[in-house]
Amino acid sequence: MTRRHLTAALAAMTIGATTGGLGLGGAGAIAAAPKVPANITAALADKARPEADVKRDAARHPGELLAWAGVKSGDKAVDFIMGGGYFTRILSAAVGPKGHVWAYQPSEFIKFRAAYGEEQKTVAGAYANVTPITAPFGELKLPDGVDLVLTVQNYHDLHLKPFPADNAAKLNAEIFRALKPGGTYVVVDHVGPAEEGTPDKLHRIDPAQVKKEVEAAGFKFVGETDLLRAKDDPHTANVFDPSIRGKTDQFAMKFRKP
């Protein structure tokens, strides 16, 4: 099963280029593209990265994004909903042997697409400093004292209809607990309209909703970057629609645990 069919599958079961910023307000300003430090440059050049991943770099700007996130050698990081491991691999090499990465894959996703489980095993087996975490959303327990939690193009999944209404709130609370004081939570997702059902219909989410929810967990909004903005995206098409796939307007917001 492909990810574009994930919502439909979950619903069938019962389970407990650049433009201006988003104008979300708060203390954070729009950040310019930062210089990519040596640890992240080396991670991007890692020969173990699949060629398919490397080809996606031009659109995903992983170097600039992780530099903006502040990823350093020795960091402890969580790739929250790792998917195929695109960012897990880069984070692993960027934090280096003195750092560590936990790669979380929700059990619900693996149940409906076995390849997610296989991809998690492959990445964890290839990098000594990567530990896989597999658990249902409602039972997730992250490691203590991490420096960074990164979630890319997945926050909207926390709002898929089969999940409880408080799913995102509980997961944000767990992320807040796991991060050390001063730790960073970075959320990247497809920009969607402020309409009920947007995550299920379009696999997008309203950035203002994300900011409100994350701040409600106790986080402080630091700022945003326009690295992944795309002015030609009308925000009305499903992200898997061929007309927009790979070219969506995406927000990237950074929060900090006080």
TrEMBL record:
Pfam families: Methyltransf_11 (PF08241). The keyword Methyltransferase applies. It comes from the Bacteria. Residues 82-186 form the Methyltransferase type domain. GO terms for molecular function: S-adenosylmethionine-dependent methyltransferase activity. One of its GO terms (biological process) is methylation. The keyword Zinc-finger does not apply. This is Methyltransferase. InterPro entries: Methyltransf_11, S-AdoMet-dep_MeTrfase_Alr7345, SAM-dependent_MTases_sf. Keywords: Methyltransferase, Transferase.
